[in-house]
Amino acid sequence: MTIKGVLFDKDGTLIDVNATWIPIYREVLMDLFDTDLAGAEALMAKAGYDKASESFKAGSILAGGTTRQLVQTWWPGIGEKEAAAKAHALDHDYVHLVKERLSPLMPLEPILSELRAMGLKLGVATNDSHVSARNHMAHVGVIAHFEDIIAADTVPVPKPSGNMIRRFAEITGMPASAIAMVGDNSHDMEEARNGGAGLAIAVLSGNAAHGDIAHLADHTIASVAELPALLRSL
After folding, report:
1. pLDDT tens digits, one per residue of 16-43
2. Stretch (H or E) spanning 43
3. Which domains does the chain have, with CATH numbers?
């Protein structure tokens, strides 16, 4: 098997999901709902926040869902026009908080540079929105490494449909079987399978424990820091 491309999940794989998003969502929800910290955390709990561990539950909406799923959770029953407005607010109105809080899991530049030096084409596949994901990769200074940022609103159906794998194959001109999907959630592994990816590689740098995800993956590593060595060994 020859891997020619790597498609990365974003939060929990490249970005420190808890350190970044827990404080951001606290502030956003206190503002949007005019509530206090306890009220914001109660709303977060509906989408998968576990206060005891101060983390997002593996497989939850906060861990890997779409902006629209968050809107449906926090504003159930609203109409399409209002839902679109809420999603726009979540994606656009709090960019200043993201710039202040966004935390990569590790220095990403040397890892991505090494992978590209190996001749690999790189991309991001996220259930976040396209505008947010592009901004996040730009904020941490690595967007130039990616062929494309594939997001929930740039494919017909988001992860784990397989559409993101197929889209990356189309963009790069390589077969899906030449792509390795790297992610920290079960839906990343399912995306790999559903899209016909050559490899599903789990990282334990997000909220999924080994027992949550390793059985779904071809390989399991601690973080993307181990990815170049793994791919060289195959």
Report:
1. 999 999 999 999 999 999 999 999 999 9
2. helix 37-46
3. 5-16+103-233 (3.40.50.1000), 18-101 (no CATH)
